[in-house]
Design brief:
single chain, alpha/beta, TIM Barrel, 8 helices, about 35% helix, globular, binds D-xylitol-5-phosphate, binds zinc ion, D-ribulose-phosphate 3-epimerase activity, carbohydrate metabolism
Length: about 230
């Protein structure tokens, strides 16, 4: 189980102003974000479209922390090199995106980037078991992927607990994505998660003109997990 001080908060720029990514990223990092989470959607694997490697490359120079790229695309393999070249530090692909997840994770590792495996709410923890030696991060989706602002699925908490037990002493992050708020965050950190993606709950009420609201929102999540005993 990670210590509470190791909990990382990764705001998702899906909830940022799409016309002002550079300043939005500078604002969240200045206000305490640990990583920057970038949601790539293809309108096929998920029913929404966002952006591709060119946008990732353009925003990379604004990111001082970690660029955490969540690929909600299928196929995946043909685009791995492009996202690696765009400057991703972590590239996460979905177990459900294709039949050859083992190969996909090998391909991500081959670029020298950290490899993540995302599991949709309908996918069991056991899907990760044969892949543990190839992953640096497991992303547990606590909403169905595609949109920000959805309601947290409590049914996923047991999956987090199972994964943490399955991981044992391996250096693998468990990231939670979807519906994270000061209310839901402690439920997943207590179950073994150590990276919290948060879109609407970080950006809501703030702007690049009022970045202190981002800071307040980030600190509220951090304070909520720190009140839970390790
Ligand atoms: C959903 C995305 C999430 C999303 C989270 O498909 O992967 O990263 O932005 O948004 P919130 O925190 O608003 O649920
Ligand atoms: Zn995401």
């Amino acid at each position: 189980m990670p210590t509470q001080s190791a909990i990382k908060i990764a705001p998702s720029i899906l909830s940022a102003d799409f016309a002002d990514f550079g300043r939005e990223i500078q604002a969240i990092e200045a206000q305490g974000a640990d990583w920057v989470h970038v949601d790539v959607m293809d309108g096929h694997f998920v029913p929404n479209l966002t952006f591709g490697p060119q946008l990732c490359k353009a925003i990379r120079r604004h990111i001082k922390t970690v660029m955490d790229v969540h690929l909600m695309i299928s196929p995946v393999d043909t685009y791995i090199e492009a996202f690696a070249e765009a400057g991703a530090d972590i590239i996460t692909a979905h177990a459900e995106a294709g039949p050859h997840m083992h190969r996909t994770l090998q391909a991500i590792r081959a670029t020298g980037k950290k490899a993540g495996l995302a599991l949709n709410p309908g996918t069991p923890a056991e899907a990760a078991a044969p892949l543990l030696d190839l992953v640096d991060l497991i992303c547990v989706m606590t909403v169905n992927p595609g949109f920000g602002g959805q309601k947290f699925l409590h049914s996923q908490i047991d999956k987090v607990r199972s994964l943490r037990a399955m991981i044992g002493g391996r250096p693998i992050h468990i990231e939670i994505d979807g519906g994270i708020t000061p209310e839901t965050a402690p439920l997943v950190t207590a179950a073994g998660a150590d990276v919290l993606v948060a879109g609407s709950s970080v950006f809501s009420g703030g702007s690049v003109e009022r970045p202190e609201i981002y800071g307040r929102n980030i600190r509220a999540i951090r304070a909520a997990v720190e009140t839970v005993a390790v």
